[in-house]
Amino acid sequence: MAELYYFKDAGRGEAIRSLFFRSLRCRLALALSGIEFKEKSVNSSDWPAMKVKGLEDLSLPFGQLPLLKINGMNIVESTSILRYLSRKCPSPPRLIS
Fold first, then answer.
1. What are the tens digits of pLDDT across the range 9-29?
2. Burial of 65 (0-12, 13-18, 19+ CB in 10 A)
3. Could you tell me the pTM of the whole model?
């Protein structure tokens, strides 16, 4: 089963809202692709420790969220996640070219 990690806290500021929207796009794409996934929201207070650990053990390649763990791969960046899902499950129509 795939796991999608994203920030739980919407917080203040446009940048944070933008990050929340990016994880929403990934959740929607997973649902449309019919892939079962588990949502793992990350609190802002837990993020610094998770980021350090992820960078050390390479489970969080660039120290960024959202992160999709699927088929033994760790994919970060919402556009990369959407591109992977679009190619993996091309029906419905591609989500991104």
1. 654 444 444 555 677 888 888
2. buried
3. 0.78
